Amino acid sequence: MLGIAPSGSRAAYTAVIMNIESSDYQLIDFGGQKKLESIGGLKIIRPEAAASGRCSDERRWKQVDGRFDRDAGGKGKWSWNTPPPEPWYGQHAGLQWQLRANDHGHIGIFPEQQENWRWVSDQVAGDPIEVLNLFAYTGGSTLAAASAGARVCHLDASRSSVRCARENAAASGLEDAPVRWITDDAMDFLKREVRRENKYQGIILDPPSFGRGPRRQIWDIDRDVISMLDLCRELFAADARFLLLSAHSAGYSPDVLSRLVEDRCGFRCKKGEMQLEAADGRILSSGAWARWSKR
Questions:
Q1: Among residues 85, 147, 179, 200, which one has the fewest Cβ atoms lying within 10 Å of its Cβ?
Q2: Are residues 89 and 96 in contact, defined by beta-carbon separation less than 8 angstroms?
Q3: Does 87 sit behind a cis peptide bond, omega within 30 degrees of 0 on the bond before it?
């Protein structure tokens, strides 16, 4: 369980204790480019390109509450036997999540990021350092950093994702945490921060393959990732503490991410895959990460 943040001003905020192992999420099974999951009281099926091979138990797939399918043109749609409650909450990594099924097959949480959240919390370690979280989605890394005592700038191009992140903070007892909630284009924001000469001790990056800013600015990871890292390098404080770069994009393996960080930021980093363990012990790879820490 999360400790409850004290009421009052942000200046009075103290870090809460996050039990990152606490969860009602489960990867039940996977195979045939699909995964079977349970969270918030519902069992769902979603596409997963990395879920190769056969599932372990076909019987588990027969009675589900909902599923997301894509047609030949790539367009997706949810179908429900048991519609999600409103609001629909689930618990994962010691946080309460307001879950929302969207047109891309997402539900408001990437549970494979749990190990990265634990690592972020360890890097902050109770110090009120400045942390920038770009492409911050519904706030997992933000809340991991804030719960450990950091002052966080949370930025995403989606107004609804930022609103959901704030609701997740409130549901998890972190409504008074020192977080700046910003809806903006990542590249535009980085350029302004460089001009302002603002600095951060920690930077978290989880860029999508493709996206659009609030004013329809285009983000393309192949085109923009190097420029993004160059700008982030300028934003690091002299006492920089950590950098986390993760990605779910095809072609962005742990080796690729670590080389990007080393080439553009000069940091020698560790690398690995984001993973989920199914009920039968099999491991599903769900993206890559590269992490640098001064510690």
A1: 85
A2: yes
A3: yes
Q: List residues bridging with 153 in a β-sheet.
A: 132, 180
Query: What are the extents of the domains in the chain?
Result: 1-295
Q: What is the pTM of this model?
A: 0.90
| C-alpha separations of 107 from 94, 141, 146, 220 in Å | 17, 16, 23, 23
Residue pLDDT, tens place only, 242-284: 999 999 999 999 999 999 999 999 999 999 999 999 999 999 9
Alpha helix (H) residue ranges in the chain: 114-124, 140-147, 159-171, 186-196, 221-235, 254-265
d(CA 225, CA 157): 16
Q: How many whole angstroms separate alpha carbon 247 and alpha carbon 209?
A: 8
Q: What number is the average pLDDT over the span 129-144?
A: 97
CB count in 10 Å sphere of residue 6: 12
Residue 20 is predicted with a pLDDT of: 54
